[in-house]
Design brief:
two-stranded antiparallel sheet; 33% helix; two-stranded antiparallel ribbon; 20% strand; 162 residues; Alpha-Beta Plaits; alpha+beta
Length: 162
């Protein structure tokens, strides 16, 4: 079963441990700007959203790459960039609709590769905002959350009508 990196922004505290773990794992430096995941923050609302490549079913980055440097790793399901083929044209950065591809200060393209099927960011996400789970499990979780909300709404409606 294909696993995906599930992001639950309601659980994210904005601690940025995922960014630091990612940059340490991939770049051997603790520098969030060199991570493949980034926390987008709205401080006044207390909202933190981890943004990372979604490894799309039909990856636009792969379609626009003139060098054929972007492909899917069949073992992990990750859409990866072959650095030997990449010429740094940045079309993948420009066309990604979710901002999942970045550039570091050395002009290197940065994109999540799912850490060979065992994402390090998930291991360091103490609140559980990041999970690497089966796609079917995500649907089940969403259904349960929706059912809980519907149940609460029904209880409130029953209280009002009585």
């Amino acid at each position: 079963m294909q696993k995906i990196l599930f992001v639950d922004p309601e659980k994210c505290t904005g601690c940025r441990l995922c960014e630091n773990a990612c940059s340490l794992y991939h770049e051997k430096v603790s520098n969030p700007s060199r991570a493949r995941i980034h926390i987008v923050k709205w401080e006044t609302e207390g909202l933190y959203v981890p943004m990372v490549c979604q490894h799309c079913e039909t990856p636009i980055c792969e379609i626009v790459c003139p060098m054929g440097a972007v492909s899917r790793n069949e073992k992990t399901g990750a859409v990866i960039i072959n650095e030997d083929l990449c010429v740094g044209c940045k079309l993948c950065v420009m066309f990604c609709p979710l901002g999942g591809v970045g550039i570091d200060k050395n002009r290197k393209i940065l994109k999540c590769d799912l850490c060979e099927g065992d994402p390090i960011c998930v291991k360091f996400c103490i609140p559980g905002a990041l999970q690497f789970i089966d796609a079917n499990t995500i649907n089940l979780k969403k259904r349960r959350i929706a059912a809980e909300k519907l149940s609460e709404l029904m209880k409130k409606l029953l209280e009002i009508s009585l």
